[in-house]
Design brief:
Elements: E1 3-6, E2 9-12, E3 15-16, H1 17-24, E4 28-32, H2 33-46, E5 52-57, H3 64-72, E6 76-79, H4 82-90, E7 98-100, H5 107-116, E8 120-123, H6 126-139, E9 143-150, E10 172-173, H7 177-185, E11 190-196, H8 207-225, E12 232-234, H9 251-261, E13 268-271, H10 275-278, E14 282-292, E15 298-302, H11 311-315, E16 321-323, E17 332-339, E18 348-357, E19 362-365, E20 386-391, E21 394-399, H12 404-408
Helix pairs in contact: 2-9, 5-6, 8-9
The protein binds ligand LLP.
Residues 57, 60, 78, 101, 161, 198, 201-202, 236-239, 272-276, 311, 370-371 line the site of ligand LLP.
Length: 415
C-alpha cells in the first residue's frame, strides 16, 4: 500500500505526510514512486510476450520526474501537444515511441513532431491529413500516420470523458474510415503505419473496450484487403480506477480481452494508459485553515482549492478524504463540506464527509495523481502547489511551489 497509516499518521511509502507538509508546505501533491512503477508493471506483465507498446498518456500527469520514470521503464508516450513532446524529450523519452493525438495539431506542432522523428501522428480529420501531408512534403520526409477512428461504442462513463460515440469531436467516423485511408494512401509523403481509437476514460467494464478492439480489427482486415497493411493497432487508454466504490475490471481483463481479439495478428498492440498509472499513486495534501459551523452545513476551509484540483468542481468527481492524523486532540467531529478559499460556490473538494479535525489538521485528498496538477490553474492568483515524489524513506521535491512573482513576471504595465 503506497498510502497507509503508521503510528497513527498517514504515510506515503515510509514517509509521513506530516513530515512532507513540514518540509515542503501545503497544498502539495505527493506521489509514490513504487505505486507508479507497480501500476506500470501490471500493464507490462499483461502484455508480456506480445509485440506491444505502453504509451503513457502524458496529459494525466506530466511532471518530468514521472515522465523520466516512465522512460526508464521503457514506456512510450501518448501526447496531445508540442509542449508535451518537449517535456517527453526533456525527460529522456524516446521520440520513436511517441504517438501524437488530438484534433487541433498546429502547423508548428506537426513540424516539431516530424523533426523529432516520432512513431506516429494520429490524424483526427481529413483537413489534418492534408496539413500533415503538405508539411511532410515541405520538409522532404514521409510522415508516419494513423487515423483515430471512432468505433461508436458507448463507454458508459461520464459524458465529459466519453469520447467514442459518433457525436463527439474526436476521430473520423467508422463509416468514413476506409475512404480516408484510401485517400491517405495516395499521398506519397504519408506512411500509413497504424490505426487507433480511444473510447473514453475511467472505464470500469472491459466489454466496451473489447468491442472497440473488435471493430478496429475488422477495419484493419478490410484495409489489408485493399492493400493497406498497418503495423500497429492503438486501442487508447481509459482503464478505470477506484475512487469510491467503483469496481473497475483489472487491467489484465482489458488487456487479455484485447489480446484475445487480436490473437494471431502480427500488429504491435499499443495502449495509452494515463489515470491507471498515476491516479492512485498521488494525493493532494492540504491543511485545514478554519472550521466554519453553519445552520444547515458545516464547512472545513482548507488551503487547497478548485484551482489545485478541479475534478470535483468540473465533473462532480468524488475523491476520498483521509485525515493525516487518525486522531488528534481538540479535533471537532462532524459532517463537513471541505472547501477552498476561492470565490466560487463550486470551490469544493468534498461534500458531506465525516471528519474530526481542527485548524492546522492535515487532510489528504486521495487518488489525485491523475488530472490533478496538470489541470491546475492560477485562478485568484494562487501559485500552484509543489510536487513531491516519495521513494521508500526519501521524499524529493520534483516541482517547486510557484511564487506569486512568477505569476505576473510576464505581464506588463501599460507605458
Ligand atoms: N489516449 C487518448 C487518446 C486520450 O484522449 C486519453 C484521455 C487517454 C489516452 C488517457 O486516458 P486515461 O487512461 O487517463 O483514462 N480530465 C479527465 C480525463 C480526461 C481524459 C482525456 N483523454 C478526468 O479528470 O477524469
Amino acid at each position: 500500500m503506497a498510502f497507509a497509516y503508521r503510528a497513527g499518521a498517514l504515510c506515503a511509502e515510509q514517509v509521513s505526510l506530516e513530515e512532507i507538509a513540514r518540509q515542503f508546505g501545503t497544498p502539495c501533491y505527493v506521489y509514490s514512486r513504487a505505486a507508479i512503477e507497480g501500476n506500470f508493471e501490471r500493464f507490462a506483465n499483461a502484455l508480456a510476450g506480445r509485440k506491444s507498446l505502453i504509451a503513457y498518456s502524458v496529459k494525466a500527469n506530466s511532471n518530468l520526474a514521472v515522465l523520466g520514470l516512465m522512460a526508464r521503464l521503457g514506456a512510450g508516450f501518448d501526447i496531445v501537444s508540442g509542449g508535451e513532446l518537449a517535456r517527453v524529450l526533456a525527460a529522456g523519452g524516446d521520440p520513436r515511441k511517441v504517438v501524437f493525438s488530438g484534433v487541433g495539431k498546429t502547423q508548428a506542432e506537426i513540424e516539431q513532431a516530424l523533426r523529432a522523428g516520432i512513431l506516429c501522428l494520429n490524424l483526427e480529420s481529413e483537413a489534418e491529413l492534408e496539413r500533415v501531408s503538405a508539411t511532410a512534403a515541405r520538409l522532404g520526409v514521409r510522415a508516419p500516420v494513423a487515423f483515430r477512428v471512432n468505433p461508436d461504442v458507448d463507454a458508459k462513463t461520464h459524458p465529459y470523458i466519453s469520447t467514442g460515440l459518433k457525436d463527439n469531436k474526436f476521430g473520423v467516423a467508422y463509416a468514413d474510415a476506409e475512404r480516408v485511408y484510401r485517400d491517405a494512401a495516395r499521398h506519397k509523403n504519408l506512411e500509413l503505419v497504424g490505426i487507433g481509437c480511444h473510447i473514453g476514460s475511467q472505464l470500469t467494464s472491459a466489454a466496451p473496450f473489447i468491442d472497440a478492439a473488435a471493430r478496429i480489427l475488422a477495419l484493419t482486415e478490410k484495409l489489408a484487403q485493399s492493400g493497406i497493411v498497418l503495423s500497429h493497432i492503438d486501442l487508447g487508454g481509459g482503464f478505470g480506477i477506484r475512487y469510491r466504490d467503483e469496481t473497475p475490471a483489472p487491467v489484465s481483463q482489458f488487456v487479455d480481452g484485447a489480446l484475445g481479439v487480436l490473437a494471431g495478428r502480427s500488429e504491435t498492440l499499443i495502449v495509452d494508459p494515463g489515470r491507471s498509472i498515476v491516479g492512485d499513486a498521488g494525493v493532494l495534501l492540504t491543511r485545514v485553515e478554519y472550521l466554519k459551523p453553519g445552520e444547515s452545513k458545516n464547512f472545513v476551509v482548507v488551503d487547497a482549492a478548485m484551482n489545485d484540483l478541479i475534478r470535483p468542481a468540473l465533473y462532480g468527481a468524488w475523491h476520498e478524504l483521509r485525515q493525516v492524523r487518525e486522531a488528534e486532540s481538540g479535533a471537532v467531529a462532524g459532517v463537513y463540506d471541505v472547501v477552498g478559499p476561492i470565490c466560487e460556490s463550486a470551490d469544493f473538494l468534498a461534500r458531506e464527509r465525516n471528519l474530526a479535525v481542527r485548524p492546522g489538521s492535515l487532510l489528504a485528498v486521495m487518488s489525485a495523481g491523475a488530472y490533478g496538477m496538470v489541470m491546475s490553474s492560477n485562478y485568484n492568483t494562487r501559485p500552484r502547489p509543489a510536487e513531491v515524489m516519495v521513494s521508500g524513506t526519501r521524499a524529493v521535491l520534483v516541482r517547486e511551489r510557484e511564487t506569486v512573482n512568477q505569476l505576473f513576471a510576464a505581464e506588463r504595465l501599460l507605458p
